[in-house]
Amino acid sequence: MTRIKNTPAKSDFETVRDWVFDLDNTLYPHHVDLFAQIDKNMTGFVSELLQLDPVEAKKLQKRYYHDHGTTLAGLMLHHGIDPQAFLERAHAIDYSALLPHPELGEAIKALPGRKFILTNGTVAHAEKAAGALGILEHFDDIFDIVAADYTPKPASSTYDKFMSLNRVDTAHAAMFEDLPRNLVVPKALGMRTVLLVPRNLEEVVTESWERLTDEDDYIDYATADLRAFLAEIMA
Ligand SMILES: [Mg+2]
């Protein structure tokens, strides 16, 4: 990982006019761990749908996540579920762990051009999370899993759909993400790529296939502090 830079070079970002952000664990840090609640809700959904005990339900949930990119994609493919019901259940969480972050809002506002949220979650979830952070007003649009026809990142068709809908010129765009694999396509499209890493990286247990590999040349930058990184771009 030595090649990956932590401090933005001005020249890399001076022509960027479209700023694309993942939501979860990107616009708020990993340690907030909203996902623990979502994860629990998804397990509950699978458990009730298929009459499985929680341990078996969790195993199946993770297998679908691994094989299809999201638990939802696996449930739709194998069990024909109503995605809306699943998404509502998954995101029925308590957002109070997200505190207003005006400095982050200022840093996003200061970026020249348009700002987008590109999430495998829903618009409702993104609005609640970004609303709790007090940064929602700075975004031009939210592209969610429904807009993506339930095909999650990192599928290239989903990025294509997002880029063409918003006429994003990828040569002048940057992508911020916490999952390395979701930066492969953006880099191939010519975007600047920034990986958000947990501040307590060593303690964080990730699934092995989510981790960085040696073939990480699609990641330009890595940072644990989005606000500081954005402020540095505009310094
Ligand atoms: Mg994320």
UniProtKB/TrEMBL annotation:
Coiled coil start-end: none
Classification via Gene3D superfamilies: 1.10.150.450, HAD superfamily/HAD-like
Keyword DNA damage attributed: no
Pfam families, per database record: Hydrolase
CDD domains assigned: HAD_5NT (cd02604)
Keyword Hydrolase annotated: yes
Annotated keywords: Hydrolase
GO molecular function terms listed in the Swiss-Prot or TrEMBL record: hydrolase activity
Protein name in the entry: Putative hydrolase of the HAD superfamily
Organism listed in the record: Gellertiella hungarica
Organism lineage string: Bacteria, Pseudomonadati, Pseudomonadota, Alphaproteobacteria, Hyphomicrobiales
